[in-house]
């Protein structure tokens, strides 16, 4: 954003300079330099900024974010999941068509290098935006981590052992409208189990989710459904080929409400009669999981696919019950998750006690690697949104205080021989794995103490001539004010 006051100031000086140029031939000879300086001033008036929907992270924010990543990573490691990474950009052909029409519109596309307009007919009014984009762009920023993971599996299948458990923590990009909890660049923390059809994998993902959010101290409810149930509902109440339209509309239920969802179904070609038949779906809230399953078995009696979805759902719930997982699971038949690639179980996790939408979600996909040429490779996964988790932890004041004090001790710098003696103690603490630093300048002790206080450093270590002669250091507890002369070995033990 340009500062209007600065513009006015520089315009006045511009005309002042022009007057001088006309009045003084000596200045006239130097006008190129003066105009160059004016241009440089004007250019510098533009304040630095970043694109909408992206953020810088301060040290405090990064320490909190690293706490989130480290906590999730520990749980993944406990479940024998292995890390991978994929490039920020993928071939557009890899990404397009995997997320539905709305997902395709939210893809960030990258212009080709060089003369990217060569051979492109901009006068052809019959070509669609996607067709034009395909000519101008061969690459795009990844929309999620699941589709790149499927591409990764196909390319590296001979290097992996299946079933393969993978986790991945990287940023993704979506050209969405920025708002609270929704950004254009954000991090996902994904865990997937691929190469197995066993529903035990779904149960393990529920267990992983339970452990992750218990570690954060966040109370959650985990919504669960099955895309086969939705396919069965489409078969019976609509048309089998309308399942995608049904899912895309239902996926917006939390955001726009039942009435608007029904209106969108009409726009998508689902008849009013079909919509009326779907009414019982919206009336299942408040029933127990077993009651919902029984009603679904009656509603879907004419659909083999739908009944298979009910059976799978019952099996997952049975596993979770026997594994004594504490997280509350609720069947939500309106849970659709609008991504096209889900084929079985689908999950959505919501935090209790906060006004926040989904903070995690995922599901079973049977055919995702098939589009890249590798058939019969079923997988299931869940993605945890780091930004949403951050906002919940912040709102509930659940970030541990200790993560904001990464530096445990600071040595006061008295200069000369005292400085060298402090450096020896500093090395001993670092060798013992204790994060420590020395103030770099021989400044007044008050200034050094203020620095330690500002950074929340719990211990300050001082050593002058007396300490050097005795081979000790004075350790000060910055919270209590207590201080004592001890050896560096004692300091290590006390801090630990």
Could you give a short description of this structure?
The protein is an alpha+beta fold and 496 residues long. Helices cover 45% and strands 17% of the residues. The longest helix is centred in the first third of the chain and has 20 residues, at 4-23.
Tell me what you see in this structure.
This protein is of the alpha+beta class. The protein has 3 domains: 4-44, no CATH class; 59-111 and 133-395, BirA Bifunctional Protein, domain 2 (2-Layer Sandwich), CATH 3.30.930.10; 405-495, 3-Layer(aba) Sandwich (Rossmann fold). It has 20 helices and 16 strands. It has an 8-stranded mixed β-sheet with strand order 1-5-6-11-10-9-7-8. A hairpin with a 6-residue loop joins strand 9 (345-351) and strand 10 (358-365). The radius of gyration is 31 Å and the shape is elongated.
Q: Which key features would you list for this structure?
A:
496 residues; alpha+beta; BirA Bifunctional Protein, domain 2; Rossmann fold; eight-stranded mixed β-sheet; five-stranded mixed β-sheet; 20 helices; 16 strands; elongated
Write the layout of secondary structure elements.
Layout: H1 4-23, H2 25-29, H3 31-44, H4 59-78, E1 82-83, E2 89-91, H5 92-95, H6 100-105, E3 109-111, H7 129-136, E4 137-141, H8 146-156, E5 164-173, E6 185-194, H9 200-216, E7 220-226, H10 227-237, H11 243-250, H12 253-267, H13 272-277, H14 289-299, H15 304-322, E8 328-331, E9 345-351, E10 358-365, E11 379-385, H16 386-395, E12 409-411, H17 416-431, E13 436-438, H18 445-454, E14 459-462, H19 465-470, E15 473-477, E16 483-486, H20 488-495
Parallel strand pairs: 1-5, 7-8, 12-13, 12-14
Antiparallel strand pairs: 2-4, 3-4, 5-6, 6-11, 7-9, 9-10, 10-11, 14-15, 15-16
